[in-house]
Amino acid sequence: MTETLAPALDPDTGRPRLSRLADDDLELLLLIRHFELKLLQLYGRGELNGTTHTCLGQEYVPVALRPLLGAADFVFSNHRGHGHYLARFGDAPGLLAEIMGREGAVCGGVGGSQHIHRDRYLSTGVQGESLPVAAGVAMHLRRTEPGALACVYIGDGTWGEGAVYEALNLAALWRLPLLIVVENNGIAQSTPTAAQMAGTVAGRAAAFGVDHHLVVSGDVNEIRTGLEPLVARVREGRPLVAEFVTHRLGPHSKGDDTRPPEVIRAAEENDWYARYAQDHPEHFHRFDGPVRALVEGVADDVAARPPSRWSPCA
Ligand SMILES: Cc1ncc(C[n+]2csc(CCOP(=O)(O)OP(=O)(O)O)c2C)c(N)n1
Ligand SMILES: [Mg+2]
């Protein structure tokens, strides 16, 4: 089954118009946006080690999903996972401390940007690693906590990993409460999806008899309304691939953007941030400055902390 969610069009301009958000949704979107921008700034100044992949442009995906997932559900995130974490916990200081290796780090500073474990939330930078694990957890949940589900985020490029298909097979066969969220931003590092994927994500899900839901909208309310009944079905053991057609606004990691200018321009034109500012200026400006200031404060606070003192022997 493939379902399509059409974007709402502004009757005057013909351009998709974003519906007004609840305050907490807007605040969360802005928190993720300013967190990611801050990270790139800190990396640019040489203040951070390791690497990072921001979710700039894709923030609305976990925000739309947030109220559809409960505390009993597991979330498996990937290398581009800061938004997933912030949508789950709202904990910018713990995440930034983790990335900076400072006191208060959510995993003692040893996980960094990509490897976080907190309660029922896990992320990994290894593509394709989490989906089979999520399938196993979904099987466990079906037996021990009926009604709970495992949600796993993967990118379009990750459909090149064979483990994805083993997991899809078992999810269908064993009717697992597994929600596979695909953030299809049309590119994997520097390879456009069209250059590496035969067929479609929908076709691949269909090959296993797994439901597929295509989201082309960037409107949080609309996305949520469309997904709500489908997520309820996942809880009853009907796995789902929810594919978001989205846009990576920033580089793959840091300073490694190989896309032609017109592709970057298209991502900017689709950016929810600019669109929401235009569609709802009063609402946008009421929160944008304060959330930006909040993130500045978090960054100053975390940067002033001593290093995290995690020890394997503790
Ligand atoms: C098994 C494995 N191979 C290669 C990499 C290096 N790598 C990190 S992200 C990435 C591209 C991922 O593309 P996609 O799944 O589309 O996610 P996106 O980065 O676009 O969000 C690659 C190849 C990796 N992390 N794991
Ligand atoms: Mg991608």
Main attributes?
globular, binds magnesium ion, binds thiamine diphosphate, two-stranded antiparallel sheet, disordered N terminus, 43% helix, 314 residues, alpha/beta, Rossmann fold
List the helices and strands and how they pair.
Blueprint: E1 2-5, H1 23-44, H2 60-65, E2 74-77, H3 82-89, H4 92-100, E3 117-118, E4 121-123, H5 130-144, E5 150-155, H6 163-173, E6 178-184, E7 187-188, E8 191-192, H7 201-207, E9 211-215, H8 220-235, E10 240-245, H9 261-269, H10 272-279, H11 281-303
Parallel strand pairs: 1-9, 2-4, 2-5, 5-6, 6-10, 9-10
Antiparallel strand pairs: 3-4, 7-8
Helix pairs in contact: 1-3, 1-11, 4-11, 5-6, 10-11
Bound molecules: thiamine diphosphate and magnesium ion.
Verbal overview:
By secondary structure, the protein is an alpha/beta fold. It has one domain: Thiamin diphosphate (ThDP)-binding fold, Pyr/PP domains (Rossmann fold). Helices cover 43% and strands 13% of the residues. The chain has eleven helices and ten strands. The strands form two sheets. The protein has an eight-stranded mixed β-sheet, sandwiched between helices. Strands 7-8 form a two-stranded antiparallel ribbon. The protein is globular, with a radius of gyration of 19 Å. The protein starts with a strand and ends in an 11-residue tail after the last helix. The relative contact order is 0.18. Residues 1-5 have low confidence and may be disordered. Magnesium ion (MG) is lined by residues 155-157, 185, 187-188.
